[in-house]
Amino acid sequence: MRCAGVWISVSALCVTACVSRPPTIAHVHVGHALTAVPSTPNHVGYLAQAESRAREAIDMAQRAGASGDLPQMKKYVASAAEATDSPDGFGVKQALALAADHVSFAATSADASTNLHQSAPVFVSHTARVLERCSLIRLLADDVAASTSVPEAQISIAEIRKLAQANLTGDVDASGAVGSSSAQYGLAQIRSELESITSRENPPYVTVDRWYLLNLVRLPSGKWIFDRLRRTDSMEGYK
Amino acid sequence: MNRVLASALLVPFAICAAFAAAEAPDPRVAVLSCAGSESPELESLRAASAAREGAIDPRLKLADALLARQCYAEAVRVLEAGEALHPNSNGIQSRLRTARTMLSEQHYFDARDRAAQSAKAERNRLRCQKLGDTAACDEALSAEPNDAALVMAKADALVQANRPAEALPLYRHAAELDAQADIDAKLAAAEAQRQTQLAQCQNESADVALRACQLALLPGSSDEFSIYKRKGILLQQMDEPLRALDSFIAAGLLKSNDETVSRAIVSLMDSTGRNDAVAFAARGRALLTLHRGADAVEALVRARTLLPDMADLEAPLAAAEELAKNEARQAKVAMAQREAERTARTPAAESSVSAAPVDDGPENPEQIRVASRAASEEKRTYSNDSPATRSH
Fold it and tell me: Which residues on A lie below 8 Å from B97 (Cβ)?
């Protein structure tokens, strides 16, 4: 009887320990794409960062389209390009590429589920059209910068506006449907797909606690650990 | 009971420890295409693995070598076959996970590269079609030369840029590609634009005319010769003899029997001192047109010496040699006649002159040149000069 009491106590302790157990490394990587990550401004997740910058790009492109003053148009378009494709400023392109990278990291983790193994490569391939639009916006912005007349600039700006909008909401096809295939995806469809992947997770994916999201590091050996002792100076982990 | 208790304690801690320190391969490793897939080392590992198909070790060695060489697709195939034979092998499972991930990343990076290329192509198409940017058209067409819409867009851009002669063949090409547009109307408009330039070429002077000639020049058209000739004349007037010679040479290639062009070529060769094979060939043909066989032979032989493989030399050379022979023969006849006239003044010589045979003339090229020199000297005319006169 006494033995049973000890067993119950130890089991209770064990259950408590498991309730507060760390998330899987795979889920932490997914959390970096969805929820929070140390490297973005305000530590938002990469996808949220991409969405926020995409909205800025739309706003700037609309302002450029509404302006009839060439220098002003060039200024707004430069800001739209900066929000879309800027390695230093976490543009849509960079943030989305990192979101895709982290979903790949998740699939690479030893604790990744079969669902993640199978879904991650497909998810990653579906980001290609947004990345392509980002590159195109950058090229067209360079053309606007070199434009010598308002009509010339307006042609590129009209295209930039369409592309910036499609980056957020997806392309409209001939039937009027938005983002109906992966070649027409915008960030909205990409987020839906990632949420759909996480909804199929077993054990279920739950929003990962920020502490775990902000303290995952990779040791020089390649091992991922949570940096409980905050030894980041001696580690190469991404934080 | 104690064993159950120990298990209950240990398992959760083991799971927690595993969660705390999971290992993952570095996914940021640069992914390149498979290199050295035909290396002897790989061949030998493939053979070893095939020889012991059921064994894990040779398969793992082969997989490791393939992964090291970034041959991810083959590594996945090898490991999947191994997984079927050994479903519980940790070595196969961990390598398979890595190989699949690296393969998917490879596809991802390839897709990224393609995305950048596609963006560039899309930008070029947009600028070509909406802004008439001919440089963008060229870039776009270099990737998709038979895209009817692009071909049409470039032709439109060229017409917009007042370059109809370049646009016309593109419209014809677009028609062959079944472009959805009224090609006949576009062709007519471009041809009308070219005719305006042609009129300027013939009627204006100096730079304006020269530019119009250049814009109107359409290879293969019936007026190509006259445009080159006009260009040559304009350039000569503008004191640009080398460029003028180029134009006359081009005109001479299109129509070799024009005496004005021929005289210009001979004259400009003399004044510029140009001495390459193309120029000598042109000079040879020009001299042939001017009926100076021996000189033509000399120029054509020179061209052949400079460029033995030069095409289209044989026919003019043969004609020039034939002409030179005739010239030599005529010279002999003329000399014989002069001799006869001279000796006729002395009765004793009369009979010997009438008996003198007239041979068929020299046979080898050197004889032809030497013998005909005298004859050609008699009737030589100089290019761009006054009408021919005899020197005696």
Answer: 108, 110, 112, 117
